Amino acid sequence: MGRRCPSPAAGVTVPWGDGRDSLLELAEACDVPVRWSCRAGVCHSCETGLLSGEVAYITEPVDPPADGDVLICSARPRGAVVLDL
Questions:
Q1: DSSP assignments along 21-64, one per residue
Q2: How far apart are CA 59 and CA 85, in angstroms?
Q3: What is the rounded distance in angstroms from the CA atom of residue 32 to the CA atom of residue 26?
Q4: How far apart are CA 55 and CA 50, in angstroms?
Q5: For a Cys-Cys bond, which of 5, 73, 76, 78 suits 46, CB 3.0-4.6 Å?
Q6: Residue 9: pLDDT above 70?
Q7: How far apart are the C-alpha atoms of 55 and 71, rounded to whole Å?
Q8: Model confidence band, residue 11 (pLDDT cutoffs 50, 70, 90)
Q9: pLDDT value at residue 8
Q10: According to DSSP H, which parts of the chain are helical?
Q11: Could you read off the pLDDT of 18-64 as tens digits, one per residue?
Q12: Could you tell me which residue, 3 or 77, shows the higher pLDDT?
């Protein structure tokens, strides 16, 4: 079944495709409205609650997100994740 990325608030559950670079790209492809600005994990505009699962960062953020949050512009799922979008 692979990695899945559900978002209960948005009412969306989608499989992760390796053609995506980040969770932000996946959200945009599914027409889920998300905030972002830098796409590099610097500005924290995309900081989103990570309800379950683990992510890996494409580039480690200079300033990590708060506990329980993820910077979706520079993160990829390590398995199934649930985001508070």
A1: SSHHHHHHHTT-----SSSSSSS-TTEEEEEES-EEESS--SSP
A2: 22
A3: 9
A4: 9
A5: 73
A6: no
A7: 10
A8: low
A9: 53
A10: 23-29
A11: 688 899 998 888 888 888 898 888 899 999 999 999 999 998 998 99
A12: 77
Sequence length of the chain is: 85
Instruction: Tell me 11's DSSP state.
Output: T
Residue whose pair of structure tokens reads 């499989």 in the numeric block: 15
Tokens of 49: 């609650």
Which is it for strands 47-52 and 82-84: parallel, antiparallel or unpaired? Answer: antiparallel
81: three-class secondary structure by DSSP: coil
Start-to-end C-alpha separation, the chain:
22
For residues 12 and 66, which has the higher predicted lDDT (pLDDT)?
Answer: 66
Residues 67-75, mean pLDDT to the nearest whole number: 95
Q: Which residues pair with 4 in a beta bridge?
A: 15
Other beta carbons within 10 Å of 5: 25
User: Which residue is listed with tokens 């899945």?
Assistant: 4
